[in-house]
Amino acid sequence: MTEGTEINPRRHPHKALNARSVQTITTNGRRRRFADGGGLYLFVAANGCKSWVLRTLVKGKRTDIGLGSLALVSLAQAREEAARLRRIARAGDDPLALRRQERRTVPTFEEAARQVHAAHAESFRNEKHRKQWLASLSEVFTAFGAKQVNAISSADVLAVLSPRWLKRPETSRRVLQRVRTVFEWCKAQGYCAGDNPTGGVTKALPKSRTAKAHHAALPYAQVPGFIHGLRESDSRESVRLAFEFTILCAARTSETLGATWSEINLDAKTWTIPGTRMKAGVEHRVPLSDRCVEILKRAAELSDGPYVFRGRTALRSLTNMVFLMALRRMNRRDLTTHGFRSSFRDWAAERTNFSRAVCESALAHTLANKTEAAYHRTDLFELRRDLMATWSAFATATPADVVAIRA
Question: Which of 55, 73, 353, 361 sits between 20 and 30 A of 282, alpha carbons compared?
Fold first, then answer.
């Protein structure tokens, strides 16, 4: 394109510009406008800066509408936006007023994330997870939290995740999942059009070669010795009881610490954990062995509040640090409480004839196979009662007795 193609009042150009020409146009220090057609012009300032302007009639009055800098808006994008605004003007509406309204109503990413967080408040398992959800997005808020959601691109998401992807892979994946959730919500609300900007981001990120770290677990043959040592340790009695109860029920730490007396039925020897406290969000019944019932009866003598294993006050449970401190007092920094679930699972696989479904149900694991899960309508409770009674007998036997046991 040359200067000779500048606005000619006798011509009505149609797509007169092209991607190359808009980059090479010069004006020799003068302000000029170059027509593309349909009222779309490339405005070139005296200093060489280029921007798009749409000239159209709005309610009978000629109006110039800025569409943005050439550095940010391509020729194709300018044509698309110009066509959209012309349609609005022809319908009798004011494109400028509509754009001002859009800028007010489309939320920033941080505003949208906080709305999603509030909408999902009831689905969080506890206050800790509720706080972690927003806290994990702090770097995202710093990077593009102030941007309106419809202006965020995959490049923005990639720029945030790239520095941390290999250093903190698990955390990064959670962040990506939460960002994806926010954009899905925005799309459903009509704030965003087109594809979710998180789509395909993982393909652009490097693959982690670090093996997934598992919770440190004790070989199951050593569990009876550990429980014997736990009973003799100098931790508080309520902590010792809670820790042994967790091992014998193959429970998660949070499930035990949050247990209330309303969940316990000593006559039926069951512990029913509501779905709101379970990782999978589904109610889980735990059959209680005779030793578990003994532990609960002793805990009832020590507890004068709603929690089975009371903390420093009657209205508070034990904190999630008590088992870690108990392990340190036993000089077992090599172990984790969660690892005893692995000890139980290995024992069940190698030393019993219970089916995989029974063992996985005891751990409250959901079935990965969706077809299998659809037909799985029972929690196999009575079979699990036998399994947990057998595990309790094994885990609480004296260490000398355990050596002679064979599969």
Answer: 353
